[in-house]
Amino acid sequence: xxxxxxxxAHPASVLLGAQAAATRLPVCDHYSGVGAxxxxxxxxxxxxxxxxxxxxxxxxLDCEDGAPVGQEREHAxxxxxxxxxxxxxxxxxxxxxxxxxxxFANDMATIAGEAGHRLTHxxxxxxxxxxxxxxxxxxxxxxxxxxxxxxxxxxxxxxxxRAFEIAAHPRVQxxxxxxxxxxxxxxxxxxxxxxxxxxQFEHPLVVRAKLEIAAACHAHGKVPSHCVVxxxxxxxxxxxxxxxxxxxxxxxRMWSIHPAQIRPILQAFAPLQGDxxxxxxxxxxxxxxxxxxxxxxxxxxxxxxxxxxxxLLERAHSTGRTIxxxxxxxxDASASSTL
Length: 339
Description:
Strand content: 5-15%
Shape: globular
Radius of gyration: 21 Å
Order of helices and strands: HHEHEHEHEHEHHEHHEHEHHEEHHH
CATH topology of the largest domain: TIM Barrel
Number of strands: 10
Strand order of the largest sheet: 1-2-3-4-5-6-7-8
CATH class of the largest domain: Alpha Beta
Structural class: alpha/beta
Helix content: 40-55%
Distance between the termini: 25 Å
Oligomer: single chain
Number of helices: 16
CATH superfamily of the largest domain: Phosphoenolpyruvate-binding domains
């Protein structure tokens, strides 16, 4: 019987199988919590979407750090309004207060309840255990937003210890590392330098926590998201941190806290153009061979390596890189919709 896989199936469905529907998130998650900055972030997202042809970063509207004390209800209403009125195709999320905060229930009822149809996810900070995930899930269901995934922020030694359990919960889509709270949770046992762009990659306890979170995510098909770089005016520091996070620690996503950080994060997480060219040639040749093993430049390739190179091309597309013509048709909106 003659195979027709190459002509009828998308590479993701062939190579990833059940994982083809797994999470694919932009590599940059941009946070803002002040009204004017939230609006500006959404405007910038729309501008870059028009420039690159698709949305390349998420905008997370922040209640935890953004809401003035005593005005949590008003801030939640503002976040819900901005999400509801975001441009078509926008990727908008919201960070609510912690599950034990008095404002949490109203955050979920207002934001998820009124704007859940426009949100990509809800971020829950300071998650300590699966019990916190279950509490957030219950609030989503009560708000008639059971479709929304949860992103959770791991910020303590105990939460790091439970990272695998938390990542295993089906509602959880991504785990982020909260550097500042993690360091301060050690009561001075970790120096302040470990909160800096350089020190966070040198202190053993911080690096261990990052690796645990990344490993937990990859074990359960979730997305590990790297923490902030607070030196937002130091482009070199950000570039270095993003590169280390993506190439050494296994992170697939990173927080931005200033518009100037978005493009450097995209650049650091994007594959090199030479690697993109090689990947496109291998995938095109594999498709021509109906995904049977091939020889490319004297090396054997089969579905294990095809899977790697296809995922490289997906990352190139998600970071706004130019996709070679030989494989570009698989990234058309019409082709993607068949997955």
